[in-house]
Write a structure and sequence with these properties.
By secondary structure, this protein is mainly α. The chain folds into 2 domains: about 80 residues; about 90 residues, no CATH class. About 55% of the residues lie in helices and about 0% in strands. Helix 5 runs antiparallel to helix 6 and helix 6 packs across helix 7.
Length: about 220
């Protein structure tokens, strides 16, 4: 009986493994069918099975279109059936996507992150007034929190004001006479609270489990 075992390494490779080998065999059966009308019936039956295997995709736009594309992909684009959608091209499918241009920003103060710099640039473009002042204050407070994530010691507000002035090319000015920023210990407390995992409140099931095992 051991000689009759069929190992996966000896089987044909599944093009889309998520659908399983049985569905791929159904596609092979459709490819072997000589009658086109019969192939069309088999293809529609396969699409129905694929839809039942992916009920979570029913709310996705062009759900049926995706299934038909996957059917042709799994048949290695050899299946000759009447599709309600344009048949995808093997050449287009084989093309490599264009390389993404990742941002290559290397800010002087990396612990602030690129989003802080974007927020500062937005604030610079705002008209002078109370709303801009409040925005600058919020940015400075967030800068202080980011600084404390990198260095848990306290930081003077003047350091944050200096960094804000530098990152804004001298256009956003806050000083010791301005509204004071949040205290360092309060910001550290907020950060620790955000990342702390709270233990489960109800531990009774675990205790009962231990008790049963001890018995």
């Amino acid at each position: 009986m051991i000689d009759n075992l069929e190992y996966n390494t000896e089987r044909t490779k599944l093009i889309i493994p998520e659908y399983g080998r049985h569905l791929h065999k159904m596609i092979d059966q459709a490819l072997a069918c000589q009658d086109k009308n019969e192939r069309n019936k088999i293809a529609k039956a396969i699409i129905g099975v694929m839809g039942n295997l992916n009920p979570h995709l029913r709310d996705v736009p062009d759900f049926q279109h995706k299934l038909w594309d996957q059917l042709f992909i799994m048949s290695d684009f050899k299946l000759d059936v009447d599709s309600p959608y344009p048949v995808p091209s093997k050449e287009v499918f084989s093309q490599r996507p264009d390389k993404l241009n990742y941002p290559q920003n290397f800010p002087k103060y990396r612990f602030y992150g690129n989003n802080i710099k974007k927020m500062i640039d937005v604030a610079v473009g705002w008209e002078e007034g109370e709303m801009k002042n409040e925005l600058v204050y919020v940015i400075a407070n967030h800068m202080k929190k980011c600084f404390l994530n990198w260095n848990k010691d306290t930081v003077e507000n003047d350091v944050i004001f200096g960094h804000l002035l530098e990152l804004s090319d001298g256009k956003l000015v806050l000083d010791s006479s301005s509204k004071p920023l949040s205290e360092s210990h309060n910001l550290i407390k907020l950060t620790n609270k955000k990342f702390t995992k709270h233990p489960p409140k109800n531990k009774k099931p675990y205790r009962n489990f231990k008790k049963r095992n001890n018995n």
